[in-house]
Amino acid sequence: MQATSPFPFGNLSTELVLLIFAHAARPTFVKTGDDVPKNPYASALSLCRVSKVVRRTVLPELLRTILLPEYNNVTAFVRALRMQQVFALQENDLRFDYAGRIDRIWFGQICEPPPQAPVHSSFASSTASERDIDFSLLAPVVLSAPSLALDFESLWLLYGCLESAWSSHVNTNDPIRVPPPWRINNLTLVGEFNRWRPLTSTAEGSAFLASISRLSFLSPARAQTHLLPTYDPCFDDLEHRKYPLPEWMTSVPWESFKHLQTISLVLPRIVLTVAAKTCLSEENVDVELLTLFDPPRSAYWEPKDISAYIESGEGRVVSVGVRTKLGYSPIQFTVSFDWEEAWTCGLLK
Ligand SMILES: *[C@@H]1O[C@H](CO)[C@@H](O)[C@H](O)[C@H]1NC(C)=O
Ligand SMILES: *[C@@H]1O[C@H](CO)[C@@H](O)[C@H](O)[C@H]1NC(C)=O
């Protein structure tokens, strides 16, 4: 038998080797269903330790999609930006400008930390969020990404970035003629969509909403399960889709979205029983994604049945398999959709 000789990696051209590294560094966002979630950036991070050249090759792959599911992921990201600021000042070889490298950013459900009680030290005037999350560092990077997804609970992070970027924009430019300090045009909102005022009530928030061309809604975050098989009476005519658009759509400030081209929203209709518990844990559930090509323009629009949008060609429905996650609480278990995975894998287009 012939012994297999080791693959002559060293004989490949440098260009090819770097391409292989870049490919190997691509994050995998599909979850494996293991109990211990794997860091999607693990391969890229290990490759960054190989050498400076390899690090420079793989960083763009790592940065393409930034996933910040929890508060500590955001603070870790801000720490990395702070390190980059120091590297840039020192002209260190490890410096790498993140802004403009990112295509998409996802913020999970991240609640604003309460302001800290003043303490007897030099930190007396700063709050936890001011120290951990420096918007002057975060804003240029977050706002340079063309596509942003965030939970409604995390909107404070967006306001913080907009406010930080807007103040220097207004001070140094003619805000009417100079383009706004962000490149985001695809906005995805997750959760319960109810608090628009913080955005609509400020100049920067209004300018931001006005610039969005594609808006997506992923809701609800959670489906309740019932002891008996049940269905939502709104959705009892599934085949003909003679059911209305969700109620919350009437509270969206449509008049603020001046450049909207399409909107999409998921039409959740989940029928679950407790017996479904075990088989659902690893399963994909089909959800319908409705895209409207002629979004509402003002507060006075008349919602129609979904079938009417489809028949007239103003809308399209596609079915998407989304993984469900189970959560347990003492009184019931809940099922939520893994929107993060579906979004990062590009299923929700
Ligand atoms: C978020 O932070 C947690 C805990 O620090 C870590 O285990 C996880 O890998 C991080 N996720 C990402 C996507 O970086
Ligand atoms: C923005 O949305 C459009 C339409 O779905 C898509 O073609 C495009 O790739 C998205 N851009 C980004 C950066 O995700």
What would a concise description of this structure say?
Keywords: Signal. The chain contains 12 helices and 10 strands.
What is the molecular shape? globular
User: Which structural class matches the secondary elements?
Assistant: alpha/beta
Query: Strand order, biggest sheet?
Result: 1-2-3-4-5-7-8-9-10-6
Bound molecules: 2-acetamido-2-deoxy-beta-D-glucopyranose
Distance between the termini: 52 Å
> Uncertain spans, ≥5 residues at pLDDT below 50?
123-129, 226-237, 270-280
Gyration radius, in Å: 23 Å
Number of domains: 2
Elements, N to C (H/E) = HHHEHEHHEHEHHEEEHEHEEH
Which percent range describes the beta-strand content? 15-25%
The description of the largest β-sheet is: 10 strands, mixed
- Average pLDDT, rounded to a whole number, is 83
Number of helices: 12
Q: Tally of extended strands?
A: 10
Give the helix level as a range of percent: 25-40%
Organism: Suillus fuscotomentosus
Signal peptide: 1-24
Protein name: F-box domain-containing protein
Keywords: Signal
